[in-house]
Amino acid sequence: VIAELMESFRCVFVDSVSNSFYPVPQEVIGVGSAFEGWRPCDWDGVYRVLVPLNPPPGHAFHLELNRAGQVSARTFSIRVELVCTFEKEQLGEEPLCFLHHSQKELGWKQKLSLLETLCTGSYLDVEKTSCWFFQLVRSSWLQVPQWHSWHVVFQPYSQSCRLQLSRGRKSLTVEILFGVRQEDSDIFVVSQPTEAQKGSSSISVSSQPTNIISRTAWPETYAVAEAKFFRHIARQLPCESLHLKCLQLFTCILRGTGFSSSTWKTVVMHVLTTVPLSRWHRSAFARRLWDVMALLDRCLQLKRLEHFVLGNERLPAEISLPPATRRVEPPNLFEHLAQDLATLREALQAYGQLRFR
C-alpha cells in the first residue's frame, strides 16, 4: 500500500516541478526496520520513506563534509552551484541559463534559481526545503489516484512531512524524508536523522541539541545501505529470516537492559559478516544468539564497537559506497564508554544481567 501510494506521489511530484527550478524527486525508498523485515518493541509505528532529490536543470549539488561534531554522526552541507545549460543539447525552445541570461530576461520569464528560493547563501536550507516539500505533498494529494480511498491528515514538521492515513479501522502513519544521494552510492544525506539514528544509542545524531544543528547541515544516513545488506543476507541464508528473529529477540525480550535497538542491530550485522552464512540454520539458533552475546561482550571489554558501514571492508560488493567512505577509519560507537567509567560499569552490569535471563 505504502509503496504504491509513494510511487503515485512521485509521478505527480515530477510533473509538478517539470517547469520550475525546484529539486526533482526520484524513486521513493523505504527505510528503517519496517522495511527491513523486523520491528523493535519500541517501534513508534511510523513508516519512513526517503525521497531522493536531484538538482533541477542549470544547477548542481556538491556535498561538503562538516568537520565539527562526532565522526559517527557526520553531517554535510549541500552547496548549490549554477551551471550552464547551453552546453547540453536541447530540442525546441532555447533553454534558460542563469549564467548567461540577463536579470531582465530572467525576471520577464518569472524564473528564480534554487539559490533564490530554497537556499541560505549558497547552501540548501533544510527548513526552507521542508516547507516547499510539505506544500508539494499537500497540493499533490488530490491528483493521486488513491486520494478517494483514504482520509488524510497532513502533519508538517520542520524537517519532514507526515501523513496520517485512515480507512475504516485501518490507519497508517507515513513520514516522508527527503535527501540527496552521495555520488552514485547507497549513502544519503537527509533532512533529519532516520529511525535508527533517533534511538538512544552512540550513533544518535539527535543526541546533539537540535538548536545547534545548522539549518544547512544534513545528517548522513546509512539506512539504505543497511536495508540492502539485509536483503543480500536473506538471499543467502539457509533460513532467510533467522537473523531477523535474532534481532527481534534481542530488541524485544531484552528491552530495558540499557542497550538500544541500534546497538543490537550493529552487533548482529557484524556477526553476519564473521560467522559463515551456512551456519545460520534453525537448529543453530541458540548458538547464533550466543555469538551475538559473545561479540557484545568482547566489544564491551575492548570498549570498542565499530560502525558497520563506515570503513567496513567486509561489506558485500553490491552495496555502493563513496570511495572516501570506504577509506575512513571505522568510528568507535563505544567511545563514550572509554571516556566515562561510570557508564562503562553500567554497561558491564547490564551485560552481566543479560547472561542470567
TrEMBL record:
Cleavable signal peptide: none
This protein's name: IPIL1 protein
Listed PANTHER family: CELL FATE DETERMINING PROTEIN MAB21-RELATED, INOSITOL 1,4,5-TRISPHOSPHATE RECEPTOR-INTERACTING PROTEIN-LIKE 1
SMART domains in alphabetical order: Mab-21 (SM01265)
Organism: Loxia curvirostra (Red crossbill)
Record gene name: Itpripl1_2
InterPro entries: ITPRIP-like, MAB21L/cGLR
GO cellular component: membrane
